[in-house]
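JOB MANIFEST
job_type = single_chain_structure
chain_count = 1
residues = 289
[input]
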Amino acid sequence: MADEDKEDEPPPAAFPIDGLYRRARVPSYTRAEMEEQDAQDRQANEAEPDTLKETEAAAKEAAIDDIYEWFNSNFEDPSFQTPSINGDYIYQYGGPFDANDVIWEIFETEYKTEWIEEAVDLIQADGPVDWAPKSSGEYYKIPVEEDEPLTERASTKLSILSGVGELRKTLVELPTRPDAVGHNGPPVDIGLPPYSEKDKKDIDVLLIDVEDAVSDENQDATTLEKLAQKLMDYGSRALTYAGQKADLAVDETIKTGIKAGSGAGLFYLFGNDAVALAKSILNFAEKLL
């Protein structure tokens, strides 16, 4: 009986066809085909690490770009907009910020350590040590109140710079005499404005020099005094013209006696402001000695 059972079992590697078991045909390959298949398998295995490297490189580049763009949308070099006094920046809108600190705070759990470090190095390579917040960024804070009042010297400096700006605006509106007039007699004697176009350009250059000298970290008292004296002379000429033109003494009565929009009125305003600014500069220079 056991022998009969064995005869009924299908032979190995066989399958039934028409009720009978037939031995399966094993596909045969030539040596060349087998070698070609092996080569294809090796090529596929070698390509896989290259693909992984490319994917990794692309992810790294995207991460660094993301960090770089985020940082530059929130921070800037303080020299762009941050006010300063004697070379020291006043971070009244927040900061100063360290690039390394803020980047790690935001991206530590998002990207690989080496990617973050590379982004930080890229940003710090071309930037300052301390950063200021951009007015459009999330780190920009409007101060509710100043913690400390400005020093007298800083306040005077800001006042002078503001005065220079206002004086340059008035200067643009002043009428002028022809450059050829004035060689044989003072213009004020014939009713012409005291300044030529060349004078106006010289005054504008003088005001720019004042601005630069006051803003300079190494302020020079002698330079400031010379600039103030030149400005005083220009201001006095304008006041003299305004007084003679209005046939009034150069005092407070001119302010009420001259129409503000008239030529004489403009020269009075300019001259009065120029003399006042010159006195402020001289006072500022004295305190440097």
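[summary]
DSSP finds nine helices and six strands in the chain.
Residues 248-261 have pLDDT under 50 and may be disordered.
exit_status = 0
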